Amino acid sequence: MSPRNRYDVTEWSVGNPVEDIGEVINSIIADIKGRQTDTSENDGGKPGAVIYLPPGDFRLRTQVVIDISFLRIEGSGHGFTSSSIRFNVPEKEWPSLHELWPGGSRILVDIPLGDLAQQSDGAAFLVERQGSPRISSVEFSNFCIDGLHFTADDSQRHPENTYTNRKTGIYVASANDSFRVNGMGFVYLEHALSIHNADALSIHDNFIAECGSCIELRGWGQASKITDNLIGAGPNGYSIYAENHGGLLVAANNVFPRGASSVHLSGVTRSSVTANRLHSFYPGMVVLDADSSENLVATNHLLRDHEPWTPFLGVDNGLDDDYGLVRISGSGNSVIGNHISEVIESRNIRPAGATPAIIRLVAGERNYVATNHVVASDVSATPSGSAFEAQVDALLSTAVSEPLGVIAVLVDPESTGNTILDSGTDDQIVADRAVNAVRATPSIGSIRGVAVS
Predict the structure, then answer these.
(1) Per the CB 3.0–4.6 Å rule, which of 143, 284, 366, 420 could disulfide with 105?
(2) Span 380-421, pLDDT tens digits
(3) CATH code at position 189
(4) What is the pTM of this model?
(5) Strands (E), 200-284
């Protein structure tokens, strides 16, 4: 068996992978294209190749351009560690830290930014090919893409806390089929993954955190999945975003707080958001807009609480509490069997005097909301300078001063013909009963929802 289709970047004859891994990988891709020219030889012809990155730090000064199918770029460790925690530790304490940077097979994105014309110019990996068939079976596996630093913006936050630097990890510009992004680490990138026009895409078992936006599926797409990932975006970006997709599966992800939303679907149809653990510091956790229809949102655990870490106190996504934790504009969607915890301080509700909305149907018709359990608590939040301890303490604490009044289901006049079952007591559901079917959860001391003395 010929080993010619497996490359080790440290053994390639062109370039220095430590100084510019981009030059090395581009040279390897050129070699693959130069050798694999026959489109039909023995019922094959262009098998593609594997490019291997051993553990180590590889600076990327030249953008990698991928225009061949059947290419796998793989490493030996996703290498994620929190750069945000380190940058918020006093610099005088850095010498005592066990490590300062992410590790594993790590690419350091150091592309000269200058005056970038568009987002794709700042991408470490640009996947683009025109013509037929679509580029297919490109895989990224088991290495780290590190944007190194964030930069100052018009906010008052420390530059390393802005989530902006015009860097993107992987940008797929062309229609594509059967791509895989598995076991990767992404950190300190303004955009981790931006993928256009995907068919049968798999984004699985990655650690994508401390990035402005984590997963963005743009253009259109079908039959793709986002599963088993650990995800954490910034307050101005998306944790998981998809537009104009059908048959999308979003399942078993653990989405950390601080992203502007946990899951945002725009013009998405006949897709599923199931069995995810979603955590947010703001309203607008799950948003279905632009007539997103016939989707299933089921058996998710949603937690909305307050930011406990002092460097980010006062930072939010700009939404009021009556916006809704789950907000739907579309028809024929099912919101079933979700557990939703709203654990906030009543004195911090915005606008003052408003009642927070949990599930809000904004527009559309024939949505089905059933057997969702809402737990709303008024707590006294205590901030901390330790990110890990503050978050764990907040998650484990269930002490409450008193229950928090909420609207479990709010139905706007533009949304009609909906069915709401057992998702809140009668006084927690705001809906026009003349145009919506409502069966409230029985209150204590009532029979079939009718109060008894």
Answers:
(1) 143
(2) 766 655 555 555 555 556 555 689 999 999 999 999 999 999
(3) 2.160.20.10
(4) 0.94
(5) 202-204, 207-211, 213-222, 225-227, 230-233, 238-243, 245-246, 249-251, 254-255, 261-266, 272-274, 277-280
